[in-house]
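Field reference: sequence -> structure
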Amino acid sequence: MVARLNRYARLSLILLLACGLGACTLLQARDPVNISVIGIEPLPGQELELRMAVKMRVQNPNETPIDYNGIAVKLDVNGQPLAAGVSDQQGHIGRYGEAVIVVPVSITAFSFLRQAYGLGRVDSLQGLPYVLRGKLAGGLLGTVRFTDEGKLDLPKGAAW
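Structure field:
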């Protein structure tokens, strides 16, 4: 009886290890997606809120496609939170492919005032650092997170 239980325990352990090794192939290392902000357009806001549509070019440098069913982004400028947005749009970015995704973001009056206060100590908007963080939701193992960092390069004559 004990020998039979031992045999079942060994068989169960071998099956568990085989399943574990098979699961590791599903968790392949993935290169980070390349994100570039290619445009910002105004949207109608409400009361003390500013709204913008942020256009991003998303490039997939991987052999596997990305299927997403939701997007979330957060924009920090000059080390302070400025805007955040979500969208329930769905899409597909093929292997070694790219897509332009538009996400509406909101800027609250408090975020705007915080930025304005911080800008009071800065001579120009040119060169201010920004960080765009976000994710393309794709289920339990398919979510792709991204970060884009840089400095604002505003056209001459652009006002805040």
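Note: The two ends are 80 Å apart (CA to CA).
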